[in-house]
Design a protein that fits this description.
single chain, mainly beta, 4-stranded antiparallel β-sheet, two-stranded antiparallel ribbon, 6 strands
Length: 68
């Protein structure tokens, strides 16, 4: 990762059952990779969009079986 890497540039836009919220994920950095972490509160399918500088980068559908 470059030294000028800013963690606050990442956001998760989560859509669950028509409800949408934007969150700031927890971020782990290891040499050449990063991990975005989020703990889901509800089970079911969630559309998760990863945004960098408010631009959509990738979308995943996440199936949550055991929420906390």
């Amino acid at each position: 990762m470059p030294d000028n890497f800013k963690e606050d540039k990442f956001q998760l836009l989560i859509n669950t059952g028509g409800r949408q919220k934007t969150i700031q994920p927890n971020i782990l950095r290891n040499q050449d990779e990063i991990s975005l972490l989020h703990r889901f509160q509800k089970t079911g399918l969630h559309d998760v969009h990863i945004l960098v500088d408010e631009d959509f980068v990738v979308t995943y559908v996440v199936k949550v079986k055991n929420a906390r």
